[in-house]
Protein 1
Amino acid sequence: MAKIKLDDIRKVYAGGVEAVKGVSIDIEDGEFIVLVGPSGCGKSTLLRMVAGLEAITSGTAQIGARTVNDVEPADRDIAMVFQNYALYPHMSVYNNMAYGLKNRGTAKAEIESRVREAARILEIEDYLDRKPRALSGGQRQRVAMGRAIVRDPAAFLFDEPLSNLDAKLRVQMRIEIKKLQKSLGTTSIYVTHDQLEAMTLADRLVVLNGGQVEQIGAPIDVYEKPASTFVASFIGSPAMNLLALQKQGQSWQLQEGEGLEIELDVAAEEITLGVRPEDLHIIPQGQTSHGVLTAHLIVSAVEPVGAESYVHGTLGNGGPEVILRAPGKAQFAIGSKLDVTATPDKLHLFDGNTGKRMEITPMRVVA
Amino acid sequence: MKRVQFSHPLLPYMLLLPQLAIVAVFFLWPAGEAIRASFYLEDPFGFGSTFVGLENFSDILTNAEYMRTAWFTLFYTVIVAFFSLSIALLLAVKADAVIHGSATYRTLLMWVYAIAPPVAGLVGIMLFDLHVGPMRDFLAHFGWDMKVGVNYWDTAFVMAIIAVWKQIPVNFIFFLSGLQGVPKSIQEAAAIDCRSGTRRFWSVTFPLLAPTGFFLLIINITYALFDTFGIIDIVLKGEPGNNPITLVYKVYVDGFRGNDLGGSSAQSVILMVLVFALTIVQFRMIERRVHYS
């Protein structure tokens, strides 16, 4: 158990490619941190630098009170769970879990009791004598977890551990990992490209893009106050609607197309307006808008997913596409026109050039 | 089991016929002839033969010279197989770890493979020649007065060196591809589990190379037993005298130099039985010891 402190970590590969561009994160003892971002954002590289599998080009990584930049992976007191499990195919499940302890000179009886205990927690006691090839994907995943927990390390590092499992098993293991981490209280860094996995597991999320941190925060804070258009579109499914607006005289217009009416008091030339699909509400026939925003939507597609339906539509005639969440039972005809609205506190504004969040509340609506 | 149906019942046999004919002409027939000849005493000038039963075999097995050759062959095979495998493995591990210019290293290490055994033998002979050999001069600095072709063990040493040198590239290629087949994530998991690189190699990498290793062991034993004929012939310049020879070379010497066709055939039959036994043992071992993920 330990704090982990990353200070301005950079990774530049031999060819000059900069994979990680100065990342600083302070991780508390026992905290579950999830690094999330699209592929190629540097999240795995960052994790591998903490593990010692990649050299740190510059910056410092501390585990506990120790700077570990030049410490061998085996001496960093970390355990890692790999995407493809990386079990030793020639060793039994027992020996897979015992290997790291044996190499550290742990007493035989101690190894035995720790492996048995881990096997009991993970419910793999019956498979201890088997070779990994005789196990299913889910069982292998458990063995990989077991190999990490028997070590009782300062930190767990997870590199997309669930992405090789089928959807049902993934949800089940996700919950188990969360429970296990809470009960063991071991500091954890978890890498995933799956925003749902990231949201459900994390104490704090680190959203990475192009080797840089876009935002660090509790999942709900990141969801409710995304720091940039990148975070806004990456976290949440379906993604937040983002509309590019430009100033025309005193009012704001869509850069392409029409069908949106809004009045904002913002000192900028170009902004991006964000609204989550669940924050767009349909105005019933005969009523008028009471939000700050009114949009006229032509329904182009409906995706019913059971409890709710995702309604896709274009703003006005040929404007940008938006998505809204409607109750599952609601019926929509393709091509029909909807008037939708949103309340001011549910609107997100981003700088049109930098994509950064702007903390300005929209003032009032044009009827 | 999937069964393939042929329109004509004889067709599958016809398709197999060319292969079967080759096996029959180049293996079964000569092997049968050897077995038959091993029971006869052949006249050296081809004027008939006399049936002598197992006398050829009992002569061979009680012959001190034959037993000495057998022991040397065993020793030679073990030495050649061991050193060509271990040196190749060492080189493969080092070449695998090279990041810059790895292609150059690999090409250089595989170059020797393109040299024919007799040429390798000639190059070796030149290196260790009594009068002009640079290696001989070099070793003379350390007080080793090497006399290839005269001293039994000096000759054996050169025969082994050339055979090992010739075989390393083949083993190297196989080991290198074997090493590159070990998943990177397993090596990384091991790096986290075990500090010592040497220990990691023996406990994780080496066992995962087992399939390659066992395959190469068969290849190398066969090589040392049979394919070193050309090297031995060149080193001995066709004049074995009192120098070390292997069983295969002795078959040739006794049969074609000594004109003892019966005795030579009996020796061939013994080798055949040996190879047969070896094959069974090795395949049994492979089935038991080799594991894939």
Protein 2
Amino acid sequence: MSELKQFKLPDVGEGLTEADIVRWLVKVGDPVEVNQIIVEIETAKAIVELPCPYEGVVARLHAAEGETVDVGLPIITIDTDPTTPTPPSAGPDTGSASGTGSAVAAELHPSPVADPGTHIGPTVGPTPGPAGSSAPDEPDSGEPKRTPVLVGYGVKPGATHRRPRKPAHPQPVDNPPAARPILESVQPARPQPAELAPALAKPPVRKLAKDLGVDLTMIAGTGPQGSITRADLQASAPLTRGVSRTESADSAGNAGLYWTTQREERVAVKGVRKATAAAMVRSAFSAPHVTEFLQVDVTESMAAVRRLRELPEFEGVKVSPLLLVAKALLTAVARHPMINSSWDEETIVVKHYVNLGIAAATERGLIVPNIKDAGTLTLPGLARELTTLAETARAGRTSLEALTGGTITITNVGVFGIDAGTPILTPGESAILAFGQIRDLPWVHEGEIAVRKVTTLSLSFDHRIVDGDLGSAVLRDVGAMLQDPLRVLAWT
Amino acid sequence: MTLDTAQPELIQLLTPEGERIDRPDYPLDLTPDEIRDLYRDLVNVRRIDLEAVALTRQGELGIWASLLGQEAAQIGSGRALRPSDMVFPTYREHGVAWCRQVEPIKLLGLFRGVNHSGWDPAEHGFHLYTIVIGSQTLHATGYAMGIQRDGSDDATIAYFGDGATSQGDVNEAFVWASVFNTPIVFFCQNNQWAISEPLEKQSRIPLYKRAQGFGFPGLRVDGNDVFACLAVTRKALADARSGQGPTLIEAFTYRMGAHTTTDDPTRYRLDGELEAWKLKDPIERVKAYLVKNQLAGADFFADVEAQAKQIGSDLRKACLELPDPPPQAMFEHVYATEHSLITAEQSAFADYLSSFADEGVS
């Protein structure tokens, strides 16, 4: 007989209510052992690996990577006696909430159980109304209602009420009827100002509204007594939580939402955004920046990229124009060591190694991981490191180690379809090279107008250390190597 | 006056490569059986710790403070004690608890929230886990002053971490212990990190040198060397028993895991640091010593592994079977004698519980 056991998301951090699934390390059908690491989750406090409490075979994954799951909901089902075939089950279940309604709603609240009443949890936050009472039409969440008792005050003699009986069989969590209200609240009827009463909402929802800059009186509540739930709030504030402005404005059925919501919103400054802001201010107002530009005919480099791709040494690695830019910059650094230095008030620290930073736009914001000792790598080695760095950054798995100790940076603004910019130095570094898009342009080539591949290089440098002649020499060298890649051979 | 910035001396009897170093000032003559037992202790407490971390991740414990990397400091010092000595631990001394014969499941009960520490401190000579940072050093000093006045030749040992040395309590304890020449050993496990705060933000001088300012000796021992921890603690305890007063032992070690299961060390420390300390692993060096000196073979190591595995799975089973305490139990140990407020609350709570009687919920 198959025996299915569910592992419910535990509170791994003293009072956390939810966590994001970062990465599954097992899939349906995989055998698992007790304490085998099966999934990585991210809570408000930490990225945590969860070990499996059961031995058996994975029968079902209840949440997809990237989903936010409430504590107490199942995330995986293990068949602990898989000698007989497991009951039919699908692959990763992304939750029933995506069945109807708009994509935005599904993305905002992908949790398989979306009952607004249970979202906060039965023991956190007071319920509105007299303790223990519940409106007859309140959707039954299947959770026992508990009388809130303040810690330290005990139970008031005579003030106790009987709690509603626990249902004999808890409702199946996979497809609760309670998921409806959220989807229905995507396009709530806006209350007229005349009928505005003080909006009912639990304190955590009020806090969230404040953080999001949402006016609660503008939202129709679907919770008990018309109170506003977290889901109501999220449905009306689509510009938050991982949904970018363009995405939300473009989503089907929600094109008007951008104009109809509140006039301004406030986005909490935290995480990468906060770190980026601090770094930019520190750099911009401590190091006097100068930026120089150079347009370069990179037709030969593009041909070189194509030839490199065919070499066996580059099999399986990505060869991009960025690789040649990186190589050219490394070569230029070796010719002009002072460009790879940092200002330390009394002294200038000239580094005889290059930890090459590559600015990367990730879902969480701008990060600049660096490739350690990039100058010592072979060209295929450098190509591999660039590929790994980009993949790691995209997966959100860049280590603290990779984010510290950089010495010089390249920012590839060309990927945004941009020619040039005036990049701000990574704090502690003295130069940053921006690599623009490569375009077909009319260009004077060997005395005639020809259509050539042209790009623009921008080099910002710290003028305390680097004078115009040095900065220009570095930029000129990089440009010369990209115009004629053979120069790299001559200069190394 | 200039600050003494000489390289701190590190007392070491067993190198990370498993080479024995002889030190006449810290003689240690262990039989092969005793060495094998120390190895077994180290492996067992690491396994207990691992199981507890996993159980926490599975929602079975509320929190756990891992001792990973600090096994030698705890087993070495714990095995130096005699049964009548008294230990005042922090919340991370699972290895010392093991030496004091406190069953591991009792530690788990505390972190599962089903008891307020399930052992009798007097029976084990092992005080309750103290969560407040450093306050146990004052309790330990007071206890030491007590046994001193009883004329006993027992000793007291107080455990704390590097972060606790910044607390007023610890410094007050140093003053009292020093002035009254109390029979106490201050055993500081310097694991380099006070949650996310590195040692250099705690002290400008090596921690053991602080003792001199209070007027008693301090020394630094390789906290990943179980031999050295044992020898050094024995000597400090002998000094305490013979009226020589307190000693501060700084066991120089490393917290290889997170501060607790709610902490994520990758946010504040570099991978390279952990990798460097892995080479100084407290268990591997004893294994290397046993192998090099042909004191143990594959059979022994397989047997130790099997025993540890069994301890782990027994602990898991026992943890899952821990009964929830009856709700009334929370009133039982608030006061030693009857107290009118507690009695009233207890009675009201009983009324509340009896309102469910017909539903069979309580």
